[in-house]
Amino acid sequence: MSSVRKRNGKYQAQVRKDGQTVSKTFTSKTDAVKWSKEQEVLIEQGSFTSKKKSITLSVLLSRWEQEVLKNLKSWNVERYKVAMIDRELGHYSLDKITSSVLVNYRDERLKVASNQTVKHELGVIRRAMKKGIEWGYVTSVPFLSSPSLKGQARTRRLKEHELMLLLGSADEYLRNVIILLIETAMRRGELGKLAISDIDLSQRLITLRDTKNGDDRTIPISPRALDAVVYLIKHAKSPMLLNYRKEWLTEKFISLCKSIDLHDFRLHDLRHEGVTKLFEKGLNTMEVSTISGHKDLGMLKRYTHLNPATLLSKL
């Protein structure tokens, strides 16, 4: 039995006969139908040989990384996940990648890695194998439930005295950077790429270019953020707002936290803090997402840990 489906502007032909399955993608429906009929004949004649069994997960991951992953902003991070998966499972032929194999991989990885890390690794496998369907390497993706993240989302917020200690202990430059990150809920990478020409002080607007989601985003500058921006522009040494690489910022922040014994607080937590403060100021979900850049509004929930005291005035 053969079938031809249109997916993403192309035609995917799939043939199932006598317990054998093969698929291939075409730009023309006519070619897809023709190929399907040819494969049915080969199977009937007994001259069809499936090639997918000789293809390993390592081969699939390599092609997926080169043709798909390298075009994504997440490549610098996710290539390490690909290397981990390749090291552990790359020797398996694709027809041997079953749910039980992935369950064993998941359970072993959970002994040494967080639920979030393992969930991301399983996501990489699924994404690569879905692409493998288009390439004719596999016909399906094994089902596997990801580890639960319940109770693992970060809820760390700065107490008022911690915030005052953090700002009071930072040098003037870093203090203004911290204030700007909290007030705007910007990502570290967005601040690192921010050009002074994209800051409109008269309108009190900042345009963030080519953000994590692939879009530009324009955000308002609060009065407190405005003071920080003016300071950073005044001390800028290039057309970019930040004088240093984003990695420097992380290192400086870690050193600062260690020097004041501020435990379990990361640079990215300033974004969590900023998003939550926006909600505490009374902004609704759509307004906050416009500033933070979240496309999935449901994701905002894990960034938001309101201080109950701020809700008293609303009761």
UniProtKB/TrEMBL annotation:
- A Pfam family this protein belongs to? Phage_integrase
Q: Which UniProt keywords apply?
A: DNA integration, DNA recombination, DNA-binding
User: InterPro entries recorded for this chain?
Assistant: DNA_brk_join_enz, Integrase-like_cat_sf, Integrase_catalytic, Integrase_recombinase_N, Tyrosine_recombinase_XerCD
- Superkingdom field: Bacteria
Indicate the segments forming the Tyr recombinase domain, all copies.
153-315
What biological processes does GO assign it? DNA integration; DNA recombination
MF-aspect GO terms: DNA binding
Q: Which PANTHER family match?
A: INTEGRASE_RECOMBINASE HI_1414-RELATED, PHAGE INTEGRASE-RELATED
- Protein name from the UniProt record: Tyr recombinase domain-containing protein
The root-end lineage is:
Bacteria, Pseudomonadati, Pseudomonadota, Gammaproteobacteria, Methylococcales
